[in-house]
Amino acid sequence: MSAHYDVIIIGTGAGGGTLARVLGDAGKHVLLLERGDFLPREQENWDLGEVRGKRRYVSQDTWYDDEGRPFQPNAYYYVGGATKMYGAALYRMRPGDFGEVRHIDGPSPAWPLGYDAFEPWYTAAEWLYQVHGTHGEDPTGGHWSKDYPWPAVSHEPGMRRLGDDLREAGYHPFPAPCGILLDEADRPRSACIRCPTCDGFPCLLHAKADAEVIGVRPVLDRDNVTLLVGTEVRRLTTDASGRTVTGVVASCDGESVTYTGDLVVLAAGAANTARILLRSASETHPAGLANGSDQVGRNYMAHISHPVLVIAKEPNDTAFQKTLGLNDFYFAGEGRPWPLGNIQLVGKSSMAARHTDPRLSALGLPLTPAEIADHAVDFWLTTEDLPKPGNRVTVDRDGNIHLAYRATNEAEADGLRRELVTALSRIGITADRVLGHDFFPRKGHPLAGVAHQAGTCRFGTDPATSVLDPNCKAHELDNLYVADAGFLPSMGAVNPALTIMANAIRVGEHLLERLN
Questions:
Q1: Which residues pair with 10 in a beta bridge?
Q2: Do residues 179 and 131 lie in contact, with contact meaning Cβ atoms separated by under 8 Å?
Q3: Which of 178, 231, 373, 417 could form a disulfide with 252 if both were Cys (CB 3.0 to 4.6 A apart)?
Q4: How far apart are CA 496 and CA 93, in angstroms?
Q5: How buried is 155 (Cβ within 10 angstroms: 0-12 exposed, 13-18 middle, 19+ buried)?
Q6: DSSP string across 191-226
Q7: Which residues pair with 336 in a beta bridge?
Q8: What is the pLDDT of residues 325-377, one digit of tens each?
Q9: Helices (DSSP H) in 104-258: which residue ranges?
Q10: Distance of CA 33 to CAs 228, 234, 258, 295, 457, Å?
Q11: pTM, two decimal places
């Protein structure tokens, strides 16, 4: 291609889409390369059977585990990336997450910068992504330089009672930070309608603050921004010194095309960014581009996450359920030797499918299966996963992803569930009404859950132990950056999306300084 760009961004998700907004608004000549297309707006967006049952929007990619067994990752390749399907839970990492944290399976390493340095970028991301929330109610939360742009999403009656009961029992529930385009003070003009198909579904109304709606679409009308869909990047080429990326080689409609730009940013997702770097091996980078440290692809993390279904005493007619979080057990303390993680409510959209679940009859509760489903409240429990060198992405001679991974801190995850059971017992919900692993057998390959993939190109100050410098520039190259979750040296126990977005804004401001 004859055009030359200031910046080429590979991927349009939480990192790439956000970065495109920063650079596009600043007037820089940006090329966005997306392997997928726009996710279609159709009635099936809100159809449980299509989205969950038939997995309508899941990529047809095939990855392989460390024994060579193929599996289909739950990945989404669209403009907006995985944020098209996320629940828009936009949490800051805790200040303590930025330092070393001791876990039962080892340490979670410290970042090369602290919470104080990162805080302004969190604020910028919260305002860009229209986050609803209330600072100060989460006892583990850090300081903030500016309040959320929108008040917390209001609780529906059942969730308000749950929060009140937990608070009376001595716990500290807080409003869950959420990125939706909701105006509760002016509902007729609000884009969001508080539907039950938000968490894990595309938004038919474009009322979810995803990376397409917030990042990409606002700059597409600018002459300085070009988006190419259906364009999968295969590898990067460099000059003879190996210090400068000179070409981005992609496949489009079956043809190989090369694009050029002053700066190149990988934001293809932690696994695919590592894949591109490893496929870009050359004489000057024999182990893969930017991989002199042998760290590219290593330290893959994914969070230890489990659903828990609670059968409440009263019917739960909540539509938009994802409004409450609980971090009382996030860190060690009060007799707990280890950090346990985050508890939050999640979407209730799959309730209809449970009315006829035969397993409900075996619970021994004085309710019909339909009544049990109507009383159900959904929780999501997240424990930090640790960066281990052996948990890694590699590629074979055909460029296919191979993922070697063993979960960490599973004992902490079990402890978090026990703490939730105890908390619920204190508000009158007995343990036989709390359903976890047995009720939710894992479907498909155990490695398929890649929504929170992170850590394959971590940043740091030492080129021997990290891939990127503190500005997320590759140590070994002068014009190559990473702006997806691959940069994370650790990931705490909260959803990573806001941290990725905040870092993309931070990287974007750095790139503007370079280009100006």
A1: 33, 266
A2: yes
A3: 231
A4: 8
A5: buried
A6: S----S--TTS--TTS-B--IIIIIIGGGTTSTTEE
A7: 333
A8: 999 999 999 999 999 999 999 987 454 445 456 666 666 677 676 777 788 89
A9: 115-128, 157-168
A10: 5, 11, 12, 25, 20
A11: 0.96
